[in-house]
Amino acid sequence: MKKYIGKNITVTGQTVNMKLGAILITDNGENIWMDGMDSWPEGYYVNDNNLKTVKVTGTIIEKNDLPVFIPNENDPVLQQGIPEPKGTDLEEASHRYLLKDYTYSIVK
């Protein structure tokens, strides 16, 4: 995906709603987040057993904004986010690709 950053692309994949927003899982298994979309509109995502296939055209961008952390058993504060194992590069783990300025349509 890195070579497509800033470029307009068209991809096909399945719609999934996650806690942090809407995702397109491409035919090759890549997760691409939909920038600014909290969830797919009604009819585009039913449930995990009934995924919709869509074609999306938009500009690829990247962000390092996923809320990742390495749990600390000695910290009394309840940590929020995505726990990662010790030794994880948190900058890399927080990375994601997104589509912005996109249009989409159901394929099947």
Task: Provide tags for this entry.
mainly beta; 108 residues; 9 strands; OB fold (Dihydrolipoamide Acetyltransferase, E2P); five-stranded mixed barrel
Can you describe this structure?
There is one protein chain. The protein has 108 residues and is mainly beta. It has a single domain (2-106), classed as Beta Barrel (OB fold (Dihydrolipoamide Acetyltransferase, E2P)). The protein is 4% helix and 50% strand. It is built from 1 helix and 9 strands; from the N terminus they run ββββββββαβ. It has one helix at 90-93, and strands at residues 8-18, 21-26, 31-34, 45-47, 50-51, 53-64, 68-69, 82-83, 95-106. A 5-stranded mixed beta barrel has the order 1-2-3-9-6. Strands 4-5 form a two-stranded antiparallel ribbon. The protein is globular and about 50 Å long. The chain starts with 7 loop residues before the first strand and ends with a strand. The model has no long low-confidence stretch (mean pLDDT 91).
Distance between the termini: 25 Å
Low-confidence stretches: none
Main pleated sheet: 5 strands, mixed, barrel
What's the helix count? 1
**Rough outline:** globular
Assign the CATH class: Mainly Beta
- Report mean pLDDT, rounded to a whole number: 91
Secondary structure elements and pairings:
Elements: E1 8-18, E2 21-26, E3 31-34, E4 45-47, E5 50-51, E6 53-64, E7 68-69, E8 82-83, H1 90-93, E9 95-106
Parallel strand pairs: 3-9, 7-8
Antiparallel strand pairs: 1-2, 1-6, 2-3, 4-5, 6-9
